[in-house]
Amino acid sequence: GLGLAVFEKKPLLQYVVQTYKKIQKDSALLFSACSHLLHNEELMASLAEGSFDAVLTDPFLPCGPIVALRLALPVVFFSHKLPCGLDFQGTQCPSPPSYVPRPLSLNSDHMTFLQRVKNMLILASEGFLCNVVYSPY
């Protein structure tokens, strides 16, 4: 998994390529599962007849909100962080990478210069990785 890769010592470019391939593979699997759910007419009809009040979902993948849209139900997110910095955009809350660590950086809020550079690189790559994950939807 991606978590174990933190402990492996590999050249940066190799690590980036492997991470990209893993994210792409995992995203395709999750997209396929979502697609199968949405195209299962019997299950979707059963959910529509369930008289639910809302859809509770994690915002990391858009399948939950898509199901909610199809069922005409409101969405309640149960995560403290929206992907791709959407929480900061939505709230207009500043998050300067010079002292606010990115979630994947494993940095604290007391960063050295090199940790701040790493934080900036992670921030810069998030848009690219988010495109990989969310473009199929």
TrEMBL record:
Pfam families: UDPGT. Keywords: Glycosyltransferase, Membrane, Transferase, Transmembrane, Transmembrane helix. It is a single-pass membrane protein. The keyword Cell membrane does not apply. This is UDP-glucuronosyltransferase 1A1. Belongs to the UDP-glycosyltransferase family. One of its GO terms (cellular component) is membrane. The keyword Cytoplasm does not apply. InterPro entries: UDP-glycosyltransferase (IPR050271), UDP_glucos_trans (IPR002213). It is found in: Membrane. It comes from the Eukaryota. GO terms for molecular function: UDP-glycosyltransferase activity.
